Amino acid sequence: MEIQTLRYFLAVAREENMTRAAGALHVTQPTLSKQVRSLERELGHKLFTRHSFSIELTEEGRLLRERATDLVRMADRIETEFRGLDDVTGGDLHLGLAESWQVSILAQEISHLRRHCPRLRYHVTSGGTAQVTDSLDRGLLDFAALVEPPDATRYRSLPLPVIDVWGVVMRSDSTLAAKEAVTVEDLVGLPLLCSEQSWERDIPGWAGERMGELTLEGTFQLAYNGAVFARAGLGYLLAFDHLVDTSPSSGLTFRPLKPTLTSHMYLIWRREQVLSPIAQRFLAQVRSSLGGLQDPQDPTATGHAPAER
Question: Where do the segments described as Disordered lie (predicted)?
Answer without folding.
Answer: 290-309
